[in-house]
Amino acid sequence: MISLKAPWHLWDRCGVELEYMIVDKKTLKVLPRADIGLGKDEHGDFVSETEHGPVGLSNELVAHVLEIKCAEPVASLKGWGNIFHKEILLANKKYAEIGAMLLPTACHPFMDPLTETHLWPYESTEIYHTYDRIFNCKGHGWANLQSTHLNLSFSGDEEFGALHAAVRALLPLIPAIAASSPYLDGSYSGYKDARIEIYRHNQERVPSITGAVIPEAVFNYADYDREIFQKVERDIAPFDTEHLLNHFFLNSRGAIARFDRGAVEIRLVDIQECPDADVAIAELETATLKALAAGTFCDPAFLRTLDTQKLAAILAKTTALAEDAVIDDTDYLRTFGIIQGTMHAGDLWKRIFEAMKSSISQASAVTLAKILERGTLSTSLYKALGEDPGHELIVYEYARLAECLAQNTLYEPEL
User: Fold this and answer.
1) Which of 84, 180, 233, 393 could pair with 389 in a Cys bridge, judged by C-beta atoms 3.0 to 4.6 Å apart?
2) What's residue 4's pLDDT?
């Protein structure tokens, strides 16, 4: 039985999770060594999760990814770019001993998941091998998609409904500010946000797990359970004969409701080149969601009428073109108080930012202004690398991104 009353109310707490690839410093080839970043317990066994003060570190599924996150829900993300950066420096110091480092962006540009994927071998192995048996995790959609998760608190049906309505409205716009994954298999993928495109398809054997990526228009636990959880449980049953997979974790929409802990987790944000950028985008997301729920742009009741498939169609555009996508859905533009018939997604973000920047920390506002002026990280990488850049140039440019991560600075292409 799920308790709908969580300890934190709407907007009381949030949390961020950052996923980084571990790569060889010289070649950028992925290395399955998350164990080094996590360390060992008192018995000398590698652990899957640990804490360094306010920061948690963990691993799930594949051994070349290290997750760095808020150890506990926090009241504000102000200053967390620096907190995460200190942890990144500590991890890089450990990895330097084996000639490795952390690499940002949401997709490794030339990883071969068929030959380079290693499942995490220390804990939860039965669950991971079940996923692998059902879906085959040796593909980009499982082994090569690093993201920034934003968790936002709620308590009870009324708060969940307000939050979920706002989240559904914002999801299609996220790639237009956060896309960082233009390259796969050594060349341009055809998508500014290849991570979301491959995410859409990685569980097609059981379509109800991902749905349309945009969650269904459900605004209370009973409806969510009926329309999402029960369908997922029913559809996975023929494959998960040992009942190892939990519906809370199976649900893979772009935002998932965690009624077990009173939070909605947004999963559509590509990880950026430095933690200041990740935190700034998370702050802008949060401020925009608060404004949507409060009726700053439109009547909050209107948000609940937004059609899932129309939202998914806008997401498809921003997945392909990021900030250059043209939004011509007048109902969607009305959601943000825009009365004109069409607008580029990047221009819509600029309008939103101008309305929201007083609600964002000064440091994050400065970072966001630079990102919106420069364009998404994907667009910047494409300007530097083009359609088919060749292996050596990719290694050079992505090594520059690793330096951005180490220095906590934004990327600028060498034009």
Assistant:
1) 393
2) 63
**Residue of 197, 267, 261 whose CA lies nearest to 16:** 267
pLDDT for res 204:
85
pLDDT computed for residue 141 by the predictor: 87
CB atoms within 10 A of CB 204: 11
Residues contacting 336, CB < 8 A, separation 6+:
297, 298, 348, 351, 352
Contact by Cβ (8 Å): 398, 378: no
Residues 6+ apart with CB under 8 A from 359: 287, 290, 291
**What is the Cα–Cα distance from 183 to 175, expressed in whole angstroms?**
15
Please report the pLDDT score of residue 132 as a whole number: 84
Phi, psi (degrees; rounded to nearest 5) at 164: -65, -35
Give the three-state DSSP class for 315.
helix
34: left (phi over 0), alpha (psi -120 to 50) or beta: alpha
Give CA angle at 175 (62, 346), nearest 5°.
Answer: 160
Q: What is the DSSP letter of 108?
A: -
Could you identify the residue written with the tokens 């760095």? 68
What lies within 8 Å, CB to CB, of 152 at 6+ separation is 10, 11, 13, 14, 163, 167, 263, 264, 266, 286, 289
Average pLDDT by stretches of 10, the chain with 415 residues:
73 98 98 94 89 95 96 97 98 98 98 92 84 86 94 97 98 98 98 95 89 97 96 93 84 95 97 98 98 98 98 98 98 96 97 97 98 98 96 98 98 84
Positive or negative, the CA dihedral 332, 336, 339, 345 is negative
Cβ neighbours for 184, distance < 8 A, ≥ 6 positions apart: 107, 109, 140, 144, 194, 198
Strands 49-52 and 14-24: unpaired
CA distance 107 to 323: 19
The beta strand positions in 271-351, using DSSP E, are 326-327, 343-344
Check: CB of residue 255 under 8 Å from CB of residue 215.
Answer: yes
Q: Provide CB contacts within 8 A for 118, sequence distance 6+.
A: 32, 62, 63, 64
CB distance 162 to 300 below 8 Å: yes
For strands 343-344 and 326-327, give the pairing: antiparallel
- In terms of phi and psi (left: phi > 0; alpha: psi -120 to 50; beta: otherwise), the region of 67 is beta
Backbone angles phi, psi at 391, to 5 degrees: -65, -45
pLDDT of residue 3: 53
